[in-house]
Design brief:
Oligomer: single chain
Number of strands: 10
Largest sheet: 6 strands, mixed
Bound molecules: adenosine-5'-diphosphate
Shape: globular
CATH superfamily of the domain at 2-75 and 168-173 and 195-269: P-loop containing nucleotide triphosphate hydrolases
Structural class: alpha/beta
Length: about 280
């Protein structure tokens, strides 16, 4: 559903130009959940912004369901880390969630109904009449996720979505995302700097090199479903994968594995399936 070919993005021009990503190739199948990790500043957010049509690539292309992305495409929703700034404080929670539906859904009543259904889906069935300042950080991020879901996106992009909440809330939100993907035919890309999170959530983990970002490794995650915070994380395969990802993120040797699409981890399991076996 998503094809990224030789994607390069430089900011600025001439001698001051800065290349954030260089020659990224990535293919994502319908219904996959793909984690993207890499050192800080390696271009993870730039990659997501190119996919979202928010910035134009310097070269290369992004195709979504066979159509080139050169503007914000239909069927796409984005959840950012900074929930505090992504909600309008003067609107009720329900109106925040219903806001983007103005583009697609006629009539206030159907929009409110869709917003209430999305709030229920994220575990906040009674929060519609509340305001942002009445909610905890974790609840605000659930509202941001509800707003994304209300549009019934085909592709959900999440940029460090749980970077601003405490550890327990983070785990709850991770499980919420796994639950959402279990119930909906939705493709999800999650940018994270948290290596455990990348393995716990992903069907695949894409590791980018230090900037300018390139694909260093594409690791299939063959962990059993459904996943659980305790049961999954104590598995030897989880520990092996998180160690592998950690090693790849920390490694500064550009020659090692750059551009490869599988690693020893993948070789041990055979090539990754088109539609992931670990889908929950
Ligand atoms: P990451 O998300 O991996 O931390 P980013 O995509 O935010 O990385 O940034 C990659 C590089 O591009 C960084 O060096 C950053 O300073 C630079 N960069 C990001 N956005 C801009 C911009 N709008 N103008 C100039 N440089 C930018």
């Amino acid at each position: 559903m998503l094809e990224i070919t030789d994607l390069t993005k430089s900011y600025g021009r001439g001698p001051a130009a800065h290349t954030a990503i260089a020659g990224v190739n990535l293919s994502v199948a319908q219904g996959e959940l793909v984690s993207i990790v890499g050192p800080s500043g390696c271009g993870k957010s730039t990659l997501l912004r190119c996919i979202a049509g928010l910035v134009h690539p310097t070269s290369g292309r992004v195709m979504l369901r066979g159509v080139p992305v050169d503007d914000v495409p239909d069927g796409l929703a984005v959840v950012l880390q900074d929930y505090g700034r992504s909600l309008y404080p003067w609107l009720s929670v329900r109106d925040n969630v219903a806001m983007p539906l103005r583009r697609t859904t006629r009539g206030r009543a159907p929009r409110r109904k869709a917003a209430d259904a999305a709030l229920a889906a994220v575990g906040l069935p009674d929060a519609g009449d509340k305001y942002q300042w009445q909610l905890s950080g974790g609840m605000q991020q659930r509202v941001a996720i509800a707003r994304a879901l209300a549009c019934e996106p085909l592709l959900l992009l999440m940029d460090e979505p749980f970077g601003s909440v405490d550890a327990q809330t983070r785990e709850d939100l991770e499980d919420l995302v796994l639950g959402i993907r279990r119930e909906r035919d939705i493709t999800i890309l999650v940018v994270t700097h948290d290596i455990d999170e990348s393995v716990y959530l992903g069907d695949r983990v894409i590791v980018l090199t230090a900037g300018p970002g390139r694909v260093r490794a594409d690791l299939p995650v063959n962990l059993p479903a459904p996943r659980g915070q305790i049961e999954t994380k104590e598995l030897a395969e989880f520990v092996r994968l998180r160690t592998e990802v950690s090693r790849l993120v920390r490694s500064r040797d550009e020659r090692e594995g750059v551009g490869q699409t599988t690693t020893a981890a993948a070789d041990a399991h055979g090539p990754g399936p088109e539609v992931p076996a670990s889908r929950q």
